[in-house]
Amino acid sequence: DAGITQSPRHKVTETGTPVTLRCHQTENHRYMYWYRQDPGHGLRLIHYSYGVKDTDKGEVSDGYSVSRSKTEDFLLTLESATSSQTSVYFCAISLDTNYGYTFGSGTRLTVV
Amino acid sequence: EDQVTQSPEALRLQEGESSSLNCSYTVSGLRGLFWYRQDPGKGPEFLFTLYSAGEEKEKERLKATLTKKESFLHITAPKPEDSATYLCAVQAGGSQGNLIFGKGTKLSVKP
């Protein structure tokens, strides 16, 4: 989507290795979110940010950490990847809490 | 617990055959209900936001309605290009914009 970029698009990693996914926006939106999407579960919130250095946990935050040092970048880190973290990860941005999200194109992560 | 349930899980229609998708929800203080479309391998694309019971919104062949317990996405005379997964999400009062998503309805429209 224009204005929001996720990298990498695909990644295969080994169990136990650290992994960082990046979300970059050019829209200057205050709110940024990380979701994972799995068959049978739909989209579930991992972490979100409501400003630079302001973050909070979502529904499925165990095993994940985030950082937001600049408005435009929101990083998701898997400290020690496990097979249960194999998923498609989506970043989303929102101008304000009453607005819908704009989603990125997703990162497909496979942990082997 | 806030919850969103979408039905049916999958729907197959012939081109021109109108139908509706359902999204039922339980949430503490609804701030908004959102509909998204998701194509395979892509991120969800925003369609509508509804804020209060009785509200309706339209876009091309799609019309979304909202009651106090559920929302419907009506598809009139669908075309094959309407094939996608449609996601419903709710935002609860007091949330930091967090959305709770349903599992989606996969729509297939055959020519």
Descriptors:
heterodimer; A: 112 residues; mainly beta; seven-stranded mixed sheet; four-stranded antiparallel sheet; 0% helix; globular; B: 111 residues; five-stranded antiparallel sheet; 11 strands
What does this structure look like?
The complex is a heterodimer of chains A (112) and B (111). By secondary structure, chain A is mainly β. Chain A has strands at 4-7, 10-13, 19-25, 31-38, 42-51, 54-57, 64-70, 73-78, 87-94, 102-103, 107-111. Chain B is 0% helix and 59% strand. The mean pLDDT of chain B is 94. Chain B has no helices and 11 strands. In chain B, a hairpin with a 2-residue loop joins strand 6 (56-59) and strand 7. The chains are: A mainly beta (112), B mainly beta (111). Chains A and B meet through strand 4, strand 5, strand 9 and strand 10 of A and strand 4, strand 5, strand 9 and strand 10 of B.
Topology (elements, then pairings):
The complex is a heterodimer of chains A (112) and B (111).
Chain A: E1 4-7, E2 10-13, E3 19-25, E4 31-38, E5 42-51, E6 54-57, E7 64-70, E8 73-78, E9 87-94, E10 102-103, E11 107-111
Chain B: E1 3-7, E2 10-14, E3 19-26, E4 30-38, E5 45-50, E6 56-59, E7 62-66, E8 70-75, E9 84-92, E10 99-101, E11 105-110
Parallel strand pairs in B: 2-11
Antiparallel strand pairs in B: 1-3, 3-8, 4-5, 4-9, 6-7, 7-8, 9-10, 9-11
**Oligomeric state, counting identical vs distinct chains:** heterodimer
Order of helices and strands of chain A: EEEEEEEEEEE
Range of strand content of chain A: over 45%
Number of helices of chain B: 0
Provide the structure class of chain B.
mainly beta
- What is the rounded Rg of chain B? 13 Å
> Nearest-angstrom radius of gyration of chain A?
13 Å
Helix content of chain A: under 10%
Structural category of chain A is mainly beta
Global geometry of chain B: globular
Question: Approximately how much helix is present in the residues of chain B?
Answer: under 10%
Strand proportion of chain B? over 45%
Total number of helical segments of chain A? Answer: 0
